[in-house]
Description:
Elements: E1 2-9, E2 12-17, E3 25-29, H1 31-35, E4 45-52, E5 57-63, E6 80-86, H2 94-106, E7 110-116, H3 123-135, E8 139-142, H4 151-158, E9 162-166, H5 173-180, E10 206-211, E11 214-218, H6 263-270, H7 275-291, E12 292-293, E13 297-298, H8 303-315, H9 320-329, H10 331-337, H11 349-359, H12 364-378, E14 386-395, H13 403-421, H14 437-453, H15 460-475, H16 477-482, E15 489-494, E16 497-509, E17 514-521, H17 530-539, E18 546-548, H18 556-564, E19 568-570, E20 588-590, E21 595-597, E22 606-610, E23 620-625, H19 627-632, E24 647-652, H20 656-664, H21 668-674, H22 678-689, H23 701-732
Parallel strand pairs: 3-5, 6-7, 6-9, 7-8, 9-11, 14-18, 18-19
Antiparallel strand pairs: 1-2, 1-4, 2-3, 4-5, 10-11, 12-13, 14-16, 15-16, 16-17, 20-21, 22-23, 23-24
Helix pairs in contact: 2-7, 8-9, 8-11, 8-23, 9-10, 9-15, 12-23, 13-14, 13-15, 14-15
Amino acid sequence: xxxxxxxxxxxxxxxxxxxxxxxxxxxxxxxxxxxxxxxxxxxxxxxxxxxxxxxxxxxxxxxxxxxxxxxxxxxxxxxxxxxxxxxxxxxxxxxxxxxxxxxxxxxxxxxxxxxxxxxxxxxxxxxxxxxxxxxxxxxxxxxxxxxxxxxxxxxxxxxxxxxxxxxxxxxxxxxxxxxxxxxxxxxxxxxxxxxxxxxxxxxxxxxxxxxxxxxxxxxxxxxxxxxxxxxxxxxxxxxxxxxxxxxxxxxxxxxxxxxxxxxxxxxxxxxxxxxxxxxxxxxxxxxxxxxxxxxxxxxxxxxxxxxxxxxxxxxxxxxxxxxxxxxxxxxxxxxxxxxxxxxxxxxxxxxxxxxxxxxxxxxxxxxxxxxxxxxxxxxxxxxxxxxxxxxxxxxxxxxxxxxxxxxxxxxxxxxxxxxxxxxxxxxxxxxxxxxxxxxxxxxxxxxxxxxxxxxxxxxxxxxxxxxxxxxxxxxxxxxxxxxxxxxxxxxxxxxxxxxxxxxxxxxxxxxxxxxxxxxxxxxxxxxxxxxxxxxxxxxxxxxxxxxxxxxxxxxxxxxxxxxxxxxxxxxxxxxxxxxxxxxxxxxxxxxxxxxxxxxxxxxxxxxxxxxxxxxxxxxxxxxxxxxxxxxxxxxxxxxxxxxxxxxxxxxxxxxxxxxxxxxxxxxxxxxxxxxxxxxxxxxxxxxxxxxxxxxxxxxxxxxxxxxxxxxxxxxxxxxxxxxxxxxxxxxxx
Length: 733
């Protein structure tokens, strides 16, 4: 059976079969369309299969060839567009009208203009406006829809065609539809007293059957419209009244603005071309010229501006879409970005390009940390010669969480936000626990469609949650399917718990300003990063006289480094940490699990201490590993001997450097200074809980380094501002 899509709500499409009057089938689109990235549109002619004739339900199995497909409004197979504007209440914006006329010209759709509420202005004013657009070559109608004035003439103009109604909110589109087809009973509403605009009584596009072969498409109203995919010099081609003058000017490339001997400007002076239309043309030309570069396409954005967007993103733990959307209405964001209230924000995709093309090859981590440390020193808030070091782990974005689980989490958050706005809102039913991934994908798409068609779609909270779900569905689905982060590794938090991701090794002063950081995969040993952190802190301009750290950092190598570089290492000694002469084979001590870890990441199952005092040798610790894991380990060559019954690893505790360290840690000074180590734990918590550092934004070590760089830069700026405020307050006192 063939029919036409009359309406689409929440993933359901309502089909009017051809050659019928009052029959409507409720249908869903087959999953094949989604796999092909094809979405049915209102106005589509479709083939459906009937599921239940009694319930009037079915499935869309084929979308028949389209004559056209409009982007805004999103409708298909239209013969003409009808732009409805009110002459008063709300006050007409003729620049917006011209924008819509241009957009219809771009899509090759004939356009009628209907000026409604003509009784609210004088006859002379109404005639002047009609003459302007009729003189430009458009068919114009004057109507008073609620009193049925001018409706009959308008009905003749739309007979036998599919017409799409469009225009701002509150101009009377729904009233006109009710006048043309009283049985439609389309909801109407008053103009807002506060903003003098319509209240969006129409919430989704809907095709209304008027009579045989005559349909009207009602669409939601709009208050703004951006012209895209149009070069400035081509704009003149979309003003009909310019057509007879194009090519007659003195200069071939004349755009009818500043050039001498221009026939369009002569016609303007003679009154042949409307001053209103010409002024709108100039305004639109300037807008396009500022948006595009004639030689290289769209103008580039200032890298400083883009970095500010990234800084706000990590300061407030937002998505790319979220930070851009908030920048539209949050005046504090606008002020920070140095944008005027009416200035347009960037497209979210530009942030992705900025990260990949401008930041990926830079040593952004060291660069931003050094800049923040330099700022702290210049402001007089960083005076300490002590650094505290520790590491914090970050879960990889794609691992251990299935795609279905990610979709469930994001969709649940979105539903909760919708329910907070409207407890009675219709939402599609969540699939059963055993539902397939395809079924869950379909459910999420239906949920997003419901959001888009609801009156709450523009609310900041709902928009942010729907953006998160859309990113999972559209942009990151391949990564979820792979469940792989190529650079992430398994690390251990305790002997019984592990994580898959990365480690960020931090150095922080007593003022709680981060002076250095390195980012590694999750299996990396904490202690080996100490010399690098000390070196980076010194390079940033910090004097390092002492380092405070946990037991993971009291290795023999670090004790030697402390002595050779003349700084005190305030780290408690643990005999098990010493690797002795076998440090090169990849076995390391995991301080979180409190046991030895092999190169494959497996932990020892037990250990034994051999004092060997009668042999005049140092104490030895022997670790035992699970032999069953060794049998199948990819690293067994050179590590495990075939047919061996056990796998052990022994280390010898050297005493030369550790005797001095053992004596040092017994001093009162060591004990008092070691108590301050807790401060870096609070910094780790701030990064994770406030700035979203508990989970990676994207896959790969380079992306993790970028996330770490901007997040650390953000927390450093916050800390510097707070310390600067405290300094100023003390100076006033």
